[in-house]
Design brief:
Layout lengths: L4 H27 L5 H21 L10 H19 L1 H5 L4 H12 L15 H29 L21 H26 L4 H12 L17 H14 L3 H8 L4 H5 L1 H24 L4 H16 L14 H10 L15 H19 L8 E2 L2 E2 L2 H27 L4 H12 L7 H4 L10 H15 L3 H4 L4 H4 L2
Antiparallel strand pairs: 1-2
Length: 481
Amino acid sequence: MISLRPVLNVLGFLYVGLATAMLVPAIVDVASRNADWRAFVFSALFTGLVGMLLSIAVGGSLKEGLNIRQTFLLTTLAWATLPALGALPFMWLGIGYADAVFEAVSGVTTTGSTVLSGLDGLPPGLLVWRSLLQWIGGIGIIVMAIVLLPFLRIGGMQLFQTEASDRSEKVVSRSIELIRLLGLAYVLLTALCIIAYLATGFELFDAFNHALTTISTGGFSTHDMSFGYYTNPVSGWVAIFFMVVGALPFVLIVQALRGQPLLLWRDPQVRALVGFLAVVSLMMTVYLGATMQFSFGEALLRATFNVVSIVTGTGYALGDYTEWGGPVVGIVLLLSFVGGCTGSTTGGIKMFRFLVFFGTVRAHFRRMVRPNRVMSEEYGRTRLTSELSFSVLAFLVVYMGAVGAVTLGLSIFGLDLTTALSAAATSVGNVGPGLGPVIGPSGNFAPLPDNAKWLLCAAMLFGRLELFTVLVLFDPDFWSR
């Protein structure tokens, strides 16, 4: 059997960290003379107490580190239990249990779907807590994608195994230095985003909240109109820039900040992402200019903003794109599957998997024409091995199967096909708003039945954990010696 003591010890520390984060919105409410600070203080005390008792009960169990199976289990338990505790402040403030957990899961997974309305009138501490959940989830996603998933060889992620990811059975301390650099870069980019928003006319409160949810590609806003609330077009372009930054590999961002900026452009997935965003944005700009009463500048901003927001999984909206015609709705649905780069805060399938998939298909076609010719495809300077190609193809099959299964489940709960399919795609891909009048950019997920919300919570976690991290726990061999 797997020793659970080290796993529980780490979980205890994570709970204490979450409790500490709860004090930030409490301070905001105190400064705003809002009595809701009590909800965050009481939630912090409970969460911190649980964490400390858990760590004390299994203290001293981390001396030998974590093995592969313990790492799988810790990753799943952390992402499943942190939102459950993060939902406590919502519940203290009178939000129903299902809605509270949904909002917390959407926050931590940086999905950006919401069940709350009237955001402009909500307490400031609550708005900060939503944004902070996404910001915390964003750095957690980066660490998982760069340090853990390559080590666990999930969905082709072994391609990005760095020198800090040990290839042995233990997760070693060399990863700590990488995590420290990633954290510093994450904080620096957040601070730069705050400054940029302030320069475009944002108030400090809005700039702070939107910076947290832009860098994390989360998408929670402080206004029901999302970015449609702001009239300065420069604000939209600032958001576009930092959403793209959040979709880039953070290891390469760290290297760029240390004087090697060209490494970013040399990464095939970065070039593919930027080229893809540019082409799709230009196509949609031409379409909007031809069919809508938009000037070229407004069409370019609206098209680029929404394309970048959907592809990166941020979920901000600049206008209701579901009113722009059937072709736009179809493109939006397809874009929700794409995602950014690996090692970023984005969800979705991700660019590198598309590149590996198309490389594998191209090699197969060439073998059909010349069966005796030895051919090999490469990703950058890395040769695509059969293990890597199979890993990516398996991920794609499971990913599409998950979207199909969630769509079927939502249909059983009474949702129409458009709502069910788009909700499934955006939840597994951690994108945010869906399509249709209910969960589209002008609506939210509150009208859905509770059973549908619980299913979508599972889908958001399933997608954020790259599918196989959860599925492997259902293999009986995982639990045997």
